[in-house]
């Protein structure tokens, strides 16, 4: 690696997007999903923690005593048996009396299906206009995805009615007449205040991407306000791929006496993803390196994460001017534009998507084989510290449900290199180094992974910490 000390980082004064979305399956492929070998740690809440009864698990959905219509919906989506997180979570989620849960598991392990099955099991479908389950998400994209999953798993549930409480999703002034409601905290709070959403009969509240929801200024306050309007004995489910300790402390207050399911730290980095880094000669030359990767990006679909909306727009403009077909998506677009752009990416009309952290948790497209961290995710005052959680969510856009996946992070100066090194050390990752000076070798490394059945590299990764010592 070139001498990082000789390089000077130039701060980007543009305003960065706020992380606001999530990573949820529209259709699970359990043929891969159930092969995961990760371990789930369980901590029972309240009086259950003193129980002598062993924690029950299940090996089939039928063992749970689910409604036939729900099992039929799961089978139609190729859910042949529960994933590891579902094996441990569902017996607790479906127990009576209902108990709250804080569940943390990596992307692509079936978290969404776990809380959707629970919601559908709690709902009385004969009461089609009475809201009984509420799911909150940090963005319209994630809310729409959850709505889709509910309708897919519940496709045989006669009487199921789902409403999307998002900006522009409901008729203005009309009462919300549905037994399941999915929305964003701000819109849901507005509907409650206006008397359009009756929450008196709600049995369950779900916060998806709960760490982001509770930790982010504004969203957390809105979630607390919504919670204050709901029945005191409501079952609360908090789900996310990450739960930093400081957020977990707050989550335990938001959902007191909740059962907790967590992955061991070593399991968090998504085994199916080969994680690489590219040492670019300079910040300006990152763009040239990106363009050289374009051919590999379009083998499947790819997501390019940048720091700011301005960067996304500029890279989009330059790449299109250079003849590359790409699209850009960020928070400056209105809701309908974002829906249309994401639909084009899902159906393959667009294969390369440039976006900000606003989509780090919101894109779930099975064809995504590559994620590029054009800018290393940072947080704190003036981007003073690396953001390991956002890194994990970003790379989780690929390698879904055991499929192949590659992530490439660009570094160009001491600050970016140190930040990536800290993230690697945090998760215990050995990052594979790619060289911008040897494109034959670089393309061969990436191509071998993308073309393989699983992202298990057959060459030895180079530890970024080791590489730092030699620089």
Automatic annotation (TrEMBL):
Domain called Helicase ATP-binding: residue spans: 92-261
Q: Which reaction does it catalyse?
A: ATP + H2O = ADP + phosphate + H(+)
| Region (Disordered) residue spans | 1-30
Q: What top-level branch of life does the organism fall under?
A: Eukaryota
Q: Which CDD domains match?
A: DEADc_DDX19_DDX25, SF2_C_DEAD
In this chain, composition skew of type Low complexity spans 11-24
The kind of enzyme this is, by top-level EC class, is hydrolase
Q: Which residues form the Helicase C-terminal domain?
A: 272-440
Q: Which family is this protein grouped under? A: Belongs to the DEAD box helicase family.
Name by which UniProt lists this protein: RNA helicase
Q: Which species is this UniProt entry from?
A: Sporothrix epigloea
From the UniProt record, report the name of the gene that encodes this protein. Answer: DBP5
């Amino acid at each position: 690696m070139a001498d990082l000390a000789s390089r000077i980082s130039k701060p980007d004064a543009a305003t960065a997007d706020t992380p606001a979305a999530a990573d949820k399956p529209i259709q699970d492929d359990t043929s891969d999903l159930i092969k995961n070998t990760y371990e789930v740690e369980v901590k029972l809440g309240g009086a259950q923690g003193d129980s002598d009864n062993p924690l029950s698990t299940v090996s089939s959905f039928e063992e749970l005593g689910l409604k036939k219509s729900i099992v039929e919906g799961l089978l139609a989506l190729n859910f042949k048996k529960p994933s590891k997180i579902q094996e441990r979570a569902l017996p607790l989620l479906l127990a009576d009396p209902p108990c709250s849960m804080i569940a943390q598991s990596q992307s692509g392990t079936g978290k969404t299906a776990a809380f959707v099955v629970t919601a559908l099991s709690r709902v009385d479908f004969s009461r089609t206009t009475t809201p009984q389950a509420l799911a909150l998400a940090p963005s319209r994209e994630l809310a729409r995805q959850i709505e889709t999953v509910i309708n897919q798993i519940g496709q045989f549930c006669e009487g199921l009615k789902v409403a999307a409480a998002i900006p522009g999703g409901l008729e203005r002034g009309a009462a919300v007449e549905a037994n399941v409601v999915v929305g964003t905290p701000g819109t849901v709070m507005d509907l409650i205040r206006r008397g359009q959403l009756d929450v008196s009969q709600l049995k369950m509240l779900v916060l998806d991407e709960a760490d982001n929801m509770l930790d982010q200024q504004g969203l957390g306050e809105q979630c607390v306000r919504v919670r204050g309007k709901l029945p005191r004995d409501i079952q609360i489910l908090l789900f996310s791929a990450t739960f930093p300790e400081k957020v977990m402390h707050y989550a335990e207050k938001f959902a007191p006496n909740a059962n907790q399911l967590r992955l061991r730290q070593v399991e968090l980095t998504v085994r199916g993803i080969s994680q690489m880094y590219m040492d670019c000669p300079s910040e300006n030359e990152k763009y040239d390196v990106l363009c050289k990767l374009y051919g590999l990006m379009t083998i499947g679909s790819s997501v390019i994460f940048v720091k700011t909306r301005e960067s996304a727009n500029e890279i989009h403009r330059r790449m299109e001017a250079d003849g590359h077909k790409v699209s850009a998506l960020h928070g400056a677009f209105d809701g309908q534009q974002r829906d249309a752009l994401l639909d084009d990416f899902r159906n393959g009309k667009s294969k390369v998507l440039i976006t900000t952290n606003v989509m780090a948790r919101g894109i779930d497209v099975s064809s995504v084989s590559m994620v590029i961290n054009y800018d290393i995710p940072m947080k704190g005052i003036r981007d003073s510290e690396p953001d390991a959680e956002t890194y994990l969510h970003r790379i989780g856009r690929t390698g879904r449900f055991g499929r192949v996946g590659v992530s490439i992070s660009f570094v160009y100066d001491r600050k970016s290199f140190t930040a990536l090194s800290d993230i690697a050390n945090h998760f215990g990752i050995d990052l594979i180094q790619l060289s911008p000076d040897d494109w034959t070798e670089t393309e061969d490394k990436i191509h071998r992974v993308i073309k393989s059945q699983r992202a298990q590299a057959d060459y030895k990764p180079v530890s970024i910490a080791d590489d730092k010592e030699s620089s």
